Amino acid sequence: MNTVHETIKVAAPLRAVYGQWTRFEDFPRFMDGVDEVRQLDERRCHWRTHVGGVSREFDTEIVDQLPDERISWRTVSGDVRQKGVVTFHRLDARHTSVRLAMDVEPQGIVEKTGAALGLLENRVRGDLRRFKRLVETGDAMDEGWRGRLRPADSTGEAPPAPAPKPPERPGPYPGPLPDDPSGAPDD
């Protein structure tokens, strides 16, 4: 595992900074290589990324979320292995410190080489600078999700598969499907 620690000072109130970070579907606006983040429910997100010529899809689960303080997560499916925590610290009424710590397990020779060269740290540093710019330019909203998620409620499992579609009717007649496909009456 490679561990990354980065901190950035944002010239915005704590509530605005935290609120923008909880807008997970906005992550492609500031995270390099992130094509899409789709929030599946209050705890899980599906990610599509393209980094170093490699496309990946994976799911993450929020393990702990305490409004205006921290959000921790981990991957629960896909071939990406990571976990991390982002914390928010009020410096004064108009300034917030954002601290990000991540453990990432590089996959394949390209990612392992990139990790050895410090490319992951550079990417995270750049993502935080773009996040800072997004918040400070006023493009961010100060309202995000303010719910509390506790580690005890975390499942560590991938989201459930979608329910199968009901079978289509075998013919043009109206009404429910017969219980016996042969159409023979019950005796």
- State the separation between the terminal residues, measured CA to CA: 66 Å
Structural class: alpha+beta
Number of helices: 3
Mean pLDDT metric: 83
Architecture overview:
Helices cover 19% and strands 36% of the residues. It is α+β, with helices and mostly antiparallel strands. It has a seven-stranded antiparallel sheet with strand order 1-7-6-5-4-3-2, covered by helices on one side. The termini are far apart.
Please sum up the structure shown.
This protein is α+β, with helices and mostly antiparallel strands and 187 residues long.
Task: Give short descriptive properties of this protein.
single chain; 187 residues; alpha+beta; 7-stranded antiparallel beta sheet; 3 helices; 7 strands; 19% helix; 36% strand; globular
List the helices and strands and how they pair.
Elements: E1 2-10, H1 14-21, E2 34-39, E3 44-51, E4 54-66, E5 70-78, E6 81-92, E7 95-105, H2 108-116, H3 119-136
Antiparallel strand pairs: 1-7, 2-3, 3-4, 4-5, 5-6, 6-7
